[in-house]
Write a structure and sequence with these properties.
Elements: H1 10-49, H2 52-78, H3 92-121, H4 131-158, H5 161-188, H6 194-221, H7 228-239, E1 244-255, E2 258-268, H8 273-288, E3 293-303
Parallel strand pairs: 2-3
Antiparallel strand pairs: 1-2
Helix pairs in contact: 1-2, 1-4, 2-3, 2-5, 2-6, 3-5, 3-6, 4-5, 5-6, 7-8
Keywords: Membrane, Transmembrane, Transmembrane helix, Transport
Domain Cation efflux protein cytoplasmic: 227-302
GO molecular function, one term: monoatomic cation transmembrane transporter activity
Length: 305
């Protein structure tokens, strides 16, 4: 006995998606304004002060800005209603956006590494930096850390993996600004090579985070199952349904930040079709009360008591 996606619980799901969209849009716009300011200031002062590390950090801020626009576009498309081509909705657009963010971070990290290594191979090109670069790096560190804490709080409240990825992108930028500040400080103390060394560390951090986000998103696109705790909770919820004697072949797969569930319910064979159907509907509705479940497909298996 199978239930179609159209039988999902629209009011709860639509309300949850609307809340997530508004939170994502608001937090991302804040990030956009912060990153525009940081990119301009870091790039300008990096050139004037002669700091490659600060210029690399500006490139990182620019990648944050690009990722913000990716998140805004993904948030818009993921809100589209289900249609004939996408009967389960467009939530995986967010997963695809996370994959794009990972690729962007990886590309930016590799570019930073390449430029910094070239500087170290030609140390005569490394010049002492000006003090203003240090103050800009410290200011950027504070701004990015505050932005990270704000964005992560919003992401956790609405349970969006795409927003979590974007928040940790901001945290990686904060960590990179710390490394940049240390590198610039070392340069000011006379260890000029520490400026490009700091740029290398930033590049490695960015590339590593890009690989992590990209792999997680790719796994979700390949129908990765929900975590063990979630599956166990779903199993227990449906087993508590009156009339359900057992269940098997419980399968889950990610659909953006939501979950699609397939399950075989064991119901007494001596019941009527109508009674068995009612029990299955009850079990499905109990599972659908979770705000992370998009749809539940049930099959009734009659068992002799």
């Amino acid at each position: 006995m199978t239930f179609s996606p159209a039988e999902a619980n629209p009011p709860v799901t639509d309300e949850a998606l609307e809340v997530r969209h508004l939170a994502a849009r608001r937090s991302t716009l804040v990030s956009v304004f912060v990153n525009i300011a940081l990119t301009i200031v870091q790039a300008a002062i990096g050139v004037v002060a002669g700091s490659q590390a600060l210029i690399a950090d500006a490139a990182h801020s620019l990648s944050d800005l690009v990722s913000d626009f990716v998140v805004l576009v993904a948030g818009h498309h993921s809100r589209k209603d289900a249609d004939l081509d996408h009967p389960y909705g467009h939530q995986r657009f967010e997963t695809a956006a996370s994959l794009a963010l990972g690729a962007l971070l990886l590309a930016v990290g590799i570019g930073m590494l390449w430029t910094a290594v070239q500087k170290i191979e030609h140390p005569e090109q490394v010049q002492p930096v000006k003090l203003v670069a240090l103050w800009v790096a410290i200011g950027a560190l504070i701004a990015k850390e505050l932005l990270f804490r704000y964005m992560l709080r919003v992401a956790e409240r609405v349970r969006s993996s795409m927003l979590v990825a974007n928040a940790w992108h901001a945290r990686s930028d904060a960590a990179s600004s710390l490394v940049v500040a240390l590198g610039i400080g070392g340069n000011l103390l006379g260890y000029h090579v520490l400026d490009p060394v700091a740029a290398i560390v930033v590049g490695l951090m960015v590339a590593r985070m890009g690989l992590q986000f990209g792999w997680d998103a790719l796994s979700d696109l390949m129908d990765r199952a929900a975590d063990e705790d979630t599956v166990a909770a779903l199993r227990q919820t449906m087993l508590e349904t009156p009339g359900v004697l057992g269940l098997h072949d419980l399968k889950t797969r990610k659909m953006g930040d939501l979950i699609l569930v397939d399950v075989h319910l064991e119901i007494a064979a001596d019941l009527t079709v109508e009674q068995g159907h009612a029990i299955a509907v009850d079990a499905r509705e109990r599972a659908m009360r979770r705000d992370d479940v998009l749809n539940v497909m049930t099959h009734v298996d009659p068992v002799r008591r």
